[in-house]
Amino acid sequence: MSLPLSFLLPLLLLLLLLLPPHPLLATSPPQLQTLIPVKPQYHNPNLPRTPLAASKRFEGSSSLVDLRYHMGPVLSSSPINLHLIWYGKWERHHQEVIRDFLRSISPAASPPSPSPSVAEWWYTPSLYTDQTGANVSRSILIASERHDANYSHGASLTRLSMQNVIASAVSAVPSPVDHRNGVYLVLTSSDVVVQDFCRAVCGFHYFTFPSVVGYTLPYAWVGNSGKQCPEVCAYPFAVPGYMAAGGTKALAPPNGDVGVDGMISVIGHELAELSTNPLVNAWYAGEDPTAPTEIGDLCEGLYGTGGGGGYIGMVMKDGEGKSYNMNGKGGRRFLVQWLWSPVLKACAGPNALD
User: Fold this and answer.
1) For 230-287, what is each residue's pLDDT tens digit?
2) The dihedral of CA 322, 323, 326, 328: what is its sign?
3) b/e map 173-183, b = 16+ CB within 10 Å
4) Per the domain annotation, does 2 fall within a domain?
5) Which of 29-33, 109-113, 248-252 has the highest mean pLDDT?
6) Rounded distance between C-alpha atoms, residue 292 and residue 287, angstroms
7) Which of 39, 125, 178, 204 is the most exposed place for a label (fewest CB within 10 A)?
């Protein structure tokens, strides 16, 4: 029996509504699609401790740490004027990596770096105050740069001759010496030998003597260890031979250079201590001001949650397998050690997972 057309039309419309849509018609319009953000990949390399970092690991709070204020000044003037001295021969792209790290410290960087960022990391030093209640400045400005590619004081420097390097740089600059808001950062190239470098230190900070420089100026020095001792001062981007024999692999540096990427963390360490203890009479633990334990020392070798007991902690890895724990200016990434927080009474960093 045939059905009348007036009955078939409603039936056909009902079937069309019940059938699943064709794949070509099922796609949502582009403006309605939702992009799912890609989360960074975390990993814990479980690298064993190194000789220089065999102690003083305190990710969790500890009543054993007696970090006290000794009434001296902190770097509270804003901005902190940083005067760079490039000693030796430097490649331009290596210098730019270091500049980008230093420029990433100030939160006013535009556009702001994504979290976890270098600016968030510097929040920890900014918690420290002097006796007037003034906090360490959150702003650091590269105020000047001096290039000494001719090794004016030789390719072998002592701690005291480091002040001569600063004196030469200061006298070569026509503008007045910045003795109020200025600090000086001496960065030596990989072929420069420095007293105690690799054996006992990867960097240090102190202040100049008026008899040498003419003023008391807070300064820090950090060396490029890429050729001399990467397994000590660029760890964990290089590991000692005895560790590598056991299967331990070095981490891939985020900016592609073991020496420079290793320097970044040491620079951060020294600047944090310089800002909180510029004249070695402000914030430190211990009774001996000639060998103070400062906010970087307390967290040496610790880069993420779960660190301590010989491990660097949870850090991130990019698509090329390069390890980092914070973001910086212009898409740069860095692996920088944590610092001791006076509020948490523990090591803290912006990439903490807890």
Assistant:
1) 999 999 999 887 776 666 789 999 999 999 999 999 999 999 999 999 999 999 998 8
2) negative
3) eeeeebeebbb
4) no
5) 248-252
6) 8
7) 39
Give the domain extent around 252: 40-348
Number of domains making up the chain: 1
The first and second tokens of residue 164, run together, are 């001569």
Residue 229, in any domain of the structure: yes
Question: How does the average pLDDT of the chain come out, rounded?
Answer: 85
Q: Do the beta carbons of residue 63 and residue 162 sit within 8 Å? A: no
Q: List b or e across 288-312, with b for residues whose CB sees 16 or more CB atoms inside 10 angstroms.
A: eeeebbbbbbbbbbbbbbbbbeebb
Amino acid in the structure at residue 42: Y
**Token output for 52:** 């220089």
**What pTM does this model have?**
0.84
How confident is the model over 287-301, as pLDDT tens digits? 888 889 999 999 999
Determine the straight-line distance between the first and last CA of the chain, rounded to whole angstroms: 75
Q: Six-digit token pair at 253?
A: 């540096």
**Domain contains 165:** yes
Length, in residues, of the chain: 354
CA–CA separation, 127 and 171 (whole Å): 35
R_g of the chain computed on alpha carbons: 27
